[in-house]
């Protein structure tokens, strides 16, 4: 049984992967992507130019066909990135709730025996 996964990566983790340079991708507009598949492991690494650069590694999703993401401006985003953001709600929602409903812990002088 093969497990599948998708997640974002830091830039220093993919420095050996032959993706297009950030300086070359900055010359193009938003929505530009560069990807490299690994036939041995089945991992696809995608670098995508949005407001900043996002690196996504995926075994489960493929790069194409790109779909449009409607926020304020319609831009093309890879399927692997949409799969990451779609299933990301648990931890982010927990952090949001902790921020809104932070428990107030007050301990008065008490002696516990």
Inertia-based shape: globular
**Overall strand count:** 6
Q: What are the segments in which pLDDT stays under 50 over at least 5 consecutive residues?
A: none
Provide the succession of SSEs: EHEEEEEHH
Q: How do the strands of the widest beta sheet line up side by side?
A: 1-4-3-2
Largest sheet descriptor: 4 strands, antiparallel
- Taking Cα atoms only, what radius of gyration do you get, to the nearest Å? 20 Å
Q: How many individual domains?
A: 1
Helix content: 10-25%
Mean pLDDT over all positions: 72
Distance between the termini: 54 Å
Strand content: 25-35%
Task: Please tell me about this protein's structure.
- The model has no long low-confidence stretch (mean pLDDT 72).
- This protein has one domain (6-89).
- The protein is of the alpha+beta class and 113 residues long.
- A four-stranded antiparallel sheet has the order 1-4-3-2. It has a two-stranded antiparallel ribbon with strand order 5-6.
- Helices cover 22% and strands 26% of the residues.
- InterPro entries: PiggyBac_TE-derived.
């Amino acid at each position: 049984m093969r497990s599948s996964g998708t997640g974002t990566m830091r830039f220093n983790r993919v420095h050996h992967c032959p993706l297009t340079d950030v300086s070359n991708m900055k010359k193009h507009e938003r929505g530009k992507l560069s990807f490299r598949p690994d036939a041995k492991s089945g991992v696809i690494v995608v670098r995508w130019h949005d407001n900043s650069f996002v690196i996504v590694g995926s075994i489960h999703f493929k790069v194409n066909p790109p779909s449009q993401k409607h926020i304020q401006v319609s831009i093309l985003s890879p399927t692997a990135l949409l799969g990451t953001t779609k299933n990301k709600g648990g931890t982010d929602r927990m952090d949001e709730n902790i921020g809104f409903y932070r428990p107030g812990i007050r301990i008065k002088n008490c002696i516990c025996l």
